[in-house]
């Protein structure tokens, strides 16, 4: 059974789809048995594609970008092994939604996996300048090595 990771932000059109596509590429490059997707805490953008600035940022960096926004549902806690919030407000929302302590324990902040991160939030670039999307990409990519180490360890322990 694959290890399942999901990334969660507010509307699932900026940060979480970017993290999804970046991390998916890395697990595919390593041929890890990992499923990767994303969702949002809110319902405003359900069915929408990723923000055009997210798409442009991903494409410039050589990543895929196909996406449709969806909202995280409490029933999904059983499906995922790791639920990565992009900021502390998402983490709080997800933990409140969790049916029990075990499910709440699956929720972590993405930037916890970046040993050099001073602020654990990935700032929302939606209302910001276009260059903020590049900053988000850089923050996500900085967390990937630590996240990959964690997932490799989880896969080793499961097998």
Provide structural commentary:
The longest helix is centred in the last third of the chain and has 28 residues. This protein is α/β, with parallel strands linked by helices. The chain has a 4-stranded parallel β-sheet with strand order 2-1-3-4. The protein is built from 5 helices and 4 strands. The radius of gyration is 14 Å and the shape is globular. It is 42% helix and 13% strand. Helix 1 packs parallel to helix 2 and helix 1 packs across helix 5. Strand 1, helix 1 and strand 2 form a beta-alpha-beta unit. The protein has one domain: Response regulator (Rossmann fold). The mean pLDDT is 97.
Question: What secondary-structure arrangement, pairings included, does this model have?
Answer:
Elements: E1 3-9, H1 15-29, E2 34-40, H2 52-60, E3 82-85, H3 88-97, H4 101-104, E4 107-109, H5 131-158
Parallel strand pairs: 1-2, 1-3, 3-4
Helix pairs in contact: 1-2, 1-5
Key words describing this protein structure:
159 residues; alpha/beta; Rossmann fold; 4-stranded parallel sheet; 5 helices; 4 strands; 13% strand; globular; protein-tyrosine-phosphatase; LMW_PTPase; Ptyr_pPase_sf; hydrolase; protein phosphatase
At CATH level 2, the architecture is: 3-Layer(aba) Sandwich
**Which sequence of strands runs across the widest sheet?**
2-1-3-4
Order of helices and strands: EHEHEHHEH
Count of DSSP strands: 4
Number of helices: 5
Keywords: Hydrolase, Protein phosphatase
Domain Phosphotyrosine protein phosphatase I: 3-150
InterPro entries: LMW_PTPase, Ptyr_pPase, Ptyr_pPase_sf, Tyr_phospatase_low_mol_wt
Organism: Actinoallomurus vinaceus
């Amino acid at each position: 059974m694959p290890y399942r990771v999901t990334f969660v932000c507010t509307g699932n059109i900026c940060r979480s789809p970017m993290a999804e596509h970046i991390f998916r590429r890395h697990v595919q490059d390593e041929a890890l048995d990992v499923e990767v997707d994303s969702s949002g805490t809110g319902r405003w953008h359900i069915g929408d594609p990723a923000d055009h600035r997210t798409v442009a940022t991903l494409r410039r960096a050589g990543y895929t970008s196909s996406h449709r926004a969806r909202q995280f549902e409490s029933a999904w806690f059983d499906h995922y092994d790791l639920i990565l919030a992009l900021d502390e407000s998402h983490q709080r929302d997800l933990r409140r939604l969790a049916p029990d302590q075990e499910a709440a324990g699956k929720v972590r902040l993405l930037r916890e996996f970046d040993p050099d991160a001073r602020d654990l939030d990935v700032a929302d670039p939606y209302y910001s300048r276009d260059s903020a999307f590049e900053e988000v990409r850089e923050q996500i990519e900085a967390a990937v090595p630590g996240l990959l180490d964690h997932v490799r360890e989880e896969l080793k322990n499961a097998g």
